[in-house]
Automatic annotation (TrEMBL):
Keywords: Acyltransferase, Transferase. GO terms for cellular component: plasma membrane. The keyword ATP-binding does not apply. It comes from Actinoplanes regularis. Pfam families: Acyltransferase (PF01553). This is 1-acyl-sn-glycerol-3-phosphate acyltransferase.
Length: 226
């Protein structure tokens, strides 16, 4: 209830007025049944604008730290993420990635919409990076169709490290659903999972117009810290 109150009454109308979202292909999102929204990741605000424009509730996962802050700031952060339908996941342990996938799989098995960033982290420079195969495992385990969603300019609206977003029209492009049911008997095959993931990333590249780099964004970020 709080999700829809926040989206339709409290925060959603303000965000729509300020950022005037322009979405191409919104009708490509199935009206019912489990759906995976596979999005490129340019900005913290991606998890705000994507659920805002969708007609169905979208569930992302986020690190548990967003829900455990103290004071007014912590309370506001917690209430925002709860209201946005985000589920906390402890990312401190070695099983963090699997915990996130298990959470999203539960959402899909209930017939709902799960959002995922196949790159696993925000792009460090606006380019599109190699996808991790968790999105393929989700598709094979759930049987859900995958809808590629390209965020086109959120890195201009809220660059990494920026707290206050620039007031600018949000632009997104939604691709046609991808059906991987033909691979249903190949669950656990890492070559099939890689092929599915690469197909999804190709669609995101075509939709976004962003340069594709065939390395993991997380490895690039780690190298920059050395």
């Amino acid at each position: 209830m709080f999700y829809w109150l926040l989206k339709l009454v409290i925060l959603g109308p303000v965000l729509r007025l300020l950022f005037r979202p322009k979405v191409e292909g919104l009708g490509n999102v199935p009206r019912s049944g489990p759906v995976i929204l596979a999005c490129n990741h340019l900005s913290f605000s991606d998890s705000i604008f994507t659920p805002l424009v969708m007609k169905r509730k979208v569930t992302f996962v986020a690190k548990a730290e967003y829900f455990t802050g103290k004071g007014i700031k912590g309370w506001l952060s917690r209430m925002f993420f709860v209201g946005a339908g985000t589920i906390p996941v402890d990312r401190s342990g070695g099983e963090a990635a699997q915990a996130a996938l298990d959470t999203l799989l539960r959402v899909l098995r209930e017939g709902n919409v799960a959002g995922i960033y196949p790159e696993g982290t925000r792009s460090p420079d606006g380019r599109l990076y190699r996808g991790k195969t968790g999105v393929a495992r989700l598709a094979l385990e759930s049987g859900a169709k995958v809808v590629p969603v390209a965020l086109l300019n959120t890195d201009e609206i809220q660059p990494t490290g920026t707290l206050i977003p620039a007031i600018k029209r949000v632009r997104m492009r939604v691709g046609k659903p991808l059906d991987f049911s033909r691979y249903a008997e190949s669950r656990g095959d890492r070559f099939v999972e890689r092929a599915i993931t690469d197909e999804i990333m190709f669609e995101l590249m075509a939709l976004s117009g962003r340069e594709y780099v065939d390395v993991y964004a997380s490895k690039l970020k780690d190298a920059q810290l050395v």
